[in-house]
Predict the structure.
Amino acid sequence: MTTDPARQPIGIPTGGQYAATAHQEALLALGGSADPERDTIRNLLGLSARTGLGQDSITYIGALMAGSPEPVYEENAATLAASYAVSAETIKEIDHVVNHGEVHLAVGPGVHESDSYLLAAAGIDGRLEAYHGDLEDLNDVNEDDNPITYTSLSGKTLILSGVSDGEFTVSYQDPYDEGNSFSVLGGEATSPADKGEMIKDALWDLAVADAHYDLDVGLHNGDLYELRETSIDRDKDGNVTATISVQNEDTGDWNHLVHDYATGVTTVQRDGKTLDPVAGGIELAAVFEDMRSEPADGDFEAHTRKVFGKLLEASAAKTDAPAWARAADLANRPAKAPVVTDTAGYRDRWWNLKNSTETAGQSFGVNGITKKAELSCNTKDYLAWVQVSPDGTLSRFVNNRPVASFPGSYRKALEMEQWAAAHRDELAAISEATQNGFR
């Protein structure tokens, strides 16, 4: 991975370019281990990491919420939320985990107990298993580091080593191209929170790379330039930028196309310097032409904004996207006039969505009260649905209760959420048209 321009994750990346390998997310189904007592300890550690509350407080809240009657459930959650200065959704998450057996981190045999507790305290979701691969395939890792295979909810697999002892390392092995594999070194004094951030940063980088690979207007290897890395980052001031790094195969020069979402301006950086606007514009056009992303009308400025906008949108729809990326995507979307302008068009779109969602294994409709488009799925354990507002905001519900996010064990609900995020614009158009009186 390059360090020009500098990026700011925790840890020092070595090797690889975070290139895409698998592009269709296959969500992971979670289950408890054979040891419920240790599952309970890990659940409490994970809840504490996610909510910021102590384990005693979490246990007490769980006891108070246990068996709350439906008519007063929301009131009880709101009362406790005010008492503990957290959201009602946090109280409900505690109830789901403590009283209903939700599992955020499943652990298989062969994983050291201390390692599993530390990673639970890192606040990650997914599955841990003992690593059974060839250690020679991993850089900076040996048997004494007790490597663990970690699978995220999106199905991405990372190798974690040195969790309790030694230098904590996050590694990714590309099964198709060794050159795309990488390791991120975190040092020996990383806290559980730092470990969690390193893991989430690696998953986010992989998600962005996959999103770019699948982008119809994205950059792909040309005759002169080769794609090396794609990233979307947020700095300490909250500014979000995307960087696409390419290499000139003739000269060996690296060009970094850096897009600022706040200003909509894309600059070209080389050797740690930003090219002047004229030289940068010429280089930008050369890169886009060679890498098969040339605008039909010749307007490279508008086309560049479109490419980076689509990149953020596709990346934010990924399961491993952080909350700030989803917020940045919504903020970056231009205001749009109502897409649906007549009843016939409304009904055509409505039926197209209904057929598409049924093919995907979900149900589509419009909520009669909120007048928002919604998707729903039903299992023996829960009824879940997602509503989409005219501005594209997603709202989630489980068993008639609003939730901030779906639990990691709700695989079908997570697949539905992923589908809704990918088709956000179409669903938002139906919500907008319905609220404008179309039926």
Notes: Confidence is low (pLDDT under 50) at residues 1-23.
